[in-house]
Amino acid sequence: PCTAVNFLCLAGHEPWSNECGCGCKPVEQTDAPIMACPQLVKLCPDGSTVKADPKNNCKIPACPCDIPKDWTVISNTTCDTIRFLCKVGFEPWSNECGCGCKPVPTTDAPVMVCPQLVKLCPDGSTVKADPTNNCKIPACPCDIPKDWTVISNTTCDTIRFLCKVDFEPWSNECGCGCKPVEQTDAPIVVCPQLVKLCPDGSTVKADPTNNCKIPACPCDIPKDWTVVSNTTCDVIRFLCKVGFEPWSNECGCGCKPVPTTDAPVMVCPQLVKLCPDGSTVKADPKNN
Q1: What is the pLDDT of residues 256-274, one digit of tens each?
Q2: Relative to the CA of 117, which of 65, 95, 177, 190 has its CA 20 to 30 Å away?
Q3: Residues 6+ positions from 79 with CB-CB distance below 8 Å
Q4: pTM exceeds 0.70
């Protein structure tokens, strides 16, 4: 009896059972209309497309993993947990087939027109705004002239340095250092006759190449002058011995001989002071 047996039917057949017995019969064909899906299309890595399947509730099937020959494959399984870089001219790709690098597509789209933005580089060359990179101005090439010295390529924000005479500091994205002072043929400024007397008796005049500023005196301190300090004159006190007097300028501070004078001696009235011991003192013509 059919209630006591188990059986399977071949493909294209289905079980039947009634009072006459049981067995397999061909699956009935139906002319029911197929489900109409929206126009959903998925672009596959090889350039082909797959459409929504009306026989599978309009689900879009997976793409065939036919990866183009000029694409590189980094991984087929671990794309969610790895990081990688592509070489110049390539860009990353990732889909159900894996991940890797593919050539950057070329385009014939019109190039953006940038304003005339130009940056002057240390070597005298210029770089212009890049229309393929949102008009950004690229960095200068680090072609540092031979007569420039480089102090650092990385720590310019945290160091201090001095340049020798006839050199001046430079700093840019390539580093920092010293470069020769540029010579100019511009007409020299005519300054008023400003003269400064220096401790050694020499004089310095206003500098027409430096906005008529008067330069510092040369620190040629006379041999008979003593130097107490070259740096801390604003915060120290000192006394000079008899016959010497203080001096202070940009070279430091100390003591120097009291200058003698050949001026005629003042003639004082005959003022006399009687002292306790019976002696007398007269008015001093050298001391007013």
Answers
A1: 999 887 666 566 666 777 7
A2: 177
A3: 94, 98, 99
A4: no
The Cα 71–Cα 90 span in angstroms is 9
Helix H or strand E segment including 56 = none
Backbone angles phi, psi at 4, to 5 degrees: -110, 5
Q: Which residue has the tokens 């064909």?
A: 29
Take residue 58 and report the two structure tokens written for it.
Answer: 């309009």
Q: Quick one: tokens of 164?
A: 């020798």
Longest dimension (CA), the chain: 172
Structure tokens that stand for 161 in this block: 């340095």
| Angle subtended at Cα 243 by Cα 238 and Cα 247, rounded to the nearest 5 degrees | 45
Do the Cβ atoms of 68 and 101 come closer than 8 Å?
no
Give just the sign of the alpha carbon dihedral 179, 180, 186, 188.
Answer: positive
- For 72, 149, 161, 166, 185, the CA distances from 180, given in Å and listed in that order, are 51, 9, 15, 6, 16
Identify the helix (H) or strand (E) that includes residue 188: none
DSSP label at 59?
Answer: B
pLDDT in tens, 4-52: 777 788 888 888 888 888 888 998 876 656 667 777 778 776 677 888 8
Which residue type is seen at 113?
V
Helix, coil or strand: residue 4: helix
Identify whether the C-beta of residue 117 lies closer than 8 Å to the C-beta of residue 111: no
Q: Do 187 and 160 touch, CB atoms closer than 8 A?
A: no
Which residue is it, tokens 């899906």? 37
